[in-house]
Amino acid sequence: MKTTITVNGEARTLDVDPRTTLLDALREHLRLTGTKKGCDHGQCGACTVLVNGTRINSCLSLAVMHDGDEVTTIEGIGTAEKLHPLQQAFLTEDAFQCGYCTPGQICSAIGMLAEIEAGLPSHASADVAAAPQLNAEEIRERMSGNICRCTAYPQIVEAIKRAAGEMA
Length: 168
Ligand code: FES
Ligand code: FES
Fold this sequence. Notes:
Shape: globular
Helix content: 25-40%
Bound molecules: FE2/S2 (inorganic) cluster
Mean pLDDT: 96
């Protein structure tokens, strides 16, 4: 089945079995292997990408559902010469350890910061009507879908705080 997805700013037409997940389409068909496959059933967040600016688990979504969508993967976020502030902050704060979870963590953090910017509350928000704060509790709650087996969680929180300060 033909489907056209704009991936990292470039329109890509794929001819895929309708059962192909977005994750497999990215990795196996487009050879964009920055997005990682961990659990393959929505529990680890390693496969997180941005679809039209919103973070999703690409293992839980079919490629054909994204005809016409804009997908951003880690390959579309910063370059080796010019890192995104979050990528730099992950290095500075030692949040990048084995690195397997890192692409998903970074895509998720971008989505999470946009959610805070848009005023969307989380389970950790004391007052759901007030503007959410960028504190450790909010970051931990909002990043709870991304598992890091190296347990770099304290550093990941610090990296997100640092990058958010620099991006503001
Ligand atoms: S690979 Fe998608 S959530 Fe684990
Ligand atoms: S840095 Fe290794 S799993 Fe997170």
